[in-house]
TrEMBL record:
Pathway the protein acts in: Cell wall biogenesis; peptidoglycan biosynthesis
Record's protein name: L,D-transpeptidase 2
Gene Ontology cellular component terms for the protein in this record: extracellular region
Species lineage: Bacteria, Bacillati, Actinomycetota, Actinomycetes, Streptosporangiales
Molecular-function annotations in GO: acyltransferase activity; peptidoglycan L,D-transpeptidase activity
Residue ranges constituting the L,D-TPase catalytic domain according to the UniProt record: 235-361
Record carries keyword Amino-acid biosynthesis: no
Record key words, sorted: Acyltransferase, Cell shape, Cell wall biogenesis/degradation, Peptidoglycan synthesis, Signal, Transferase
């Protein structure tokens, strides 16, 4: 991708090469050279030609002691390295970290005494014993469209010591801007949530510019990663547990009102949670098992249900429950799930997007913010406090959240 620096100097040359200016050149050099026709003029490049084990978080610097710099390019595998030219055109500095264990060649052209000269420096960066890489990004399904509440969930391959350095390298760019921030939920996992829901029908780009970032403890970022999140329709469900009905709207238009039967409330685990949930995943069928009980214990159950949509990690789903159709819309008799008729359960299953919002009210139990994808339960000011950055840096760039996968906790149902 072409980029522009302070003086509108266009990037070119493809991956690993950035041309700062365009100019013809003659002559050659080694890490330090003189401008033709002017013996007192010289270009120096740091790191010097032949340097090895250069720290990836270092800076490439090119200087002209007299005359001016006309062109600087950096070539090497991995991250594309750009730079910035000083106002007097005598100094150029790289603007990002370097890929570990990589050979780079810097080519600098200068002009003095009416002639041009070229100097090159080839060096290699340190190959660290341990590197930091992204193990998983959610959402990550090819072609998937997600709901307006969907976070970016990033999990690393190892614990991060310098969270601020790593977080600063994570940049989120939506087509329709909205304020957002990262929150660390462990030493190896960070979540990006927005202040308000995403606007629908847009792409959101995550650029993880990790190559060469010093993550602390001798660990450097291995490579850059780019992911795209596709926001689909705004699908928001609102329901009152005490009224036994929920209404589904798409882009503000009412689609359907669905009667349900929620948790009977006899115990905390059988109480459906109030709060802002996100639709996390779906399965058909799903086996529901009583939490904390084994076969033979009082209250033990193991039930297979169809068209199940997960809304928390404490085992709450919407799902088909033909056995409770008579109670749906009038009474709460389930073990915590929202029991729907077979037709309504299948309809909801078919239209769901991960990250769709379902906001429930009317029960005595609040959804915990770290229960599945319950991050919208945290007020914005509290959410931002989980960032490793402070001041103006916080909220500039925030994943799978706690219990992202199918290994979430017990699944009360039926």
């Amino acid at each position: 991708m072409a980029s522009k620096g302070r003086f509108g100097l266009a990037a070119a040359g493809g991956a690993g090469a950035v041309m700062v200016l365009a100019a013809g050149c003659t002559g050659a050099g080694g890490g330090k050279g003189e401008l033709a026709g002017d013996k007192s003029a010289a270009i120096t490049i740091s790191p010097a030609n032949g340097a090895a084990a250069v720290k990836p978080d270092g800076t490439i610097e090119v200087k002209a002691s007299s005359g001016t710099l006309e062109n600087v390019s950096v070539q090497g595998k991995g991250a594309t390295i750009g730079g910035q030219l000083s106002g007097d055109r005598k100094t150029w500095r790289s603007n990002r970290t370097l890929t570990p264990g990589t050979s780079y060649t810097v080519t600098a052209q200068g002009r003095g005494g009416g002639k041009t000269s070229t100097v090159t420096s080839t060096f290699s960066t340190l190959k660290p014993a341990k590197t930091l890489s992204i193990a998983d990004v959610t959402p990550n399904l090819p072609g998937e469209k997600v709901g307006v509440g969907m976070p970016f969930i990033v999990r690393f391959n190892r614990p991060v010591t310098d969270k601020a350095a790593v977080e600063k390298a994570l940049q989120v760019t939506p087509e329709k801007p909205v304020e957002g921030a990262w929150r660390w939920v462990g030493s190896d996992q960070v979540i990006y949530r927005t202040k308000t829901y995403w606007q629908p029908h847009q792409k959101v780009l995550l650029n993880a510019n990790l190559a060469g970032v010093n993550a602390g403890g001798g660990v450097y970022g291995a490579k850059d990663v780019q992911e795209t999140m596709n926001i689909g329709d705004e699908q928001i469900t609102t329901g009152d547990i005490s009224d036994h009905h929920m209404t589904v709207r798409r882009n503000g238009r009412k689609l359907r009102t669905i009667p349900f039967s929620a948790g009977n409330g006899q115990t905390r685990e059988f109480t459906t949670t109030s709060g802002i949930h996100l639709l996390m995943e779906k399965g058909n069928p799903v086996t529901m098992v009583s939490p904390g009980r084994k076969e033979g214990d009082p209250g033990y159950y193991k039930t297979v249900v169809n068209h199940a949509v997960r809304i928390s990690n404490s085992g709450e789903y919407t799902h088909s429950a033909p056995w409770s159709v008579g109670s749906q819309g009038s009474d709460n008799v389930s073990h915590g799930c929202l029991n729907l008729s077979p037709a309504n359960a299948r309809w909801y299953y078919d239209i769901m997007q991960r990250g769709d919002v379902i906001k429930l009210t009317g029960s005595s139990r609040e959804l915990e913010w770290d229960n599945g994808w319950g991050m919208w339960q945290l007020p914005w000011n509290k959410w931002k406090k989980g960032s490793a950055l402070t001041g103006a840096d916080a909220g500039t760039g925030a994943t799978a959240s706690p219990g992202t996968g199918t290994d979430a906790g017990a699944t009360p149902g039926n």
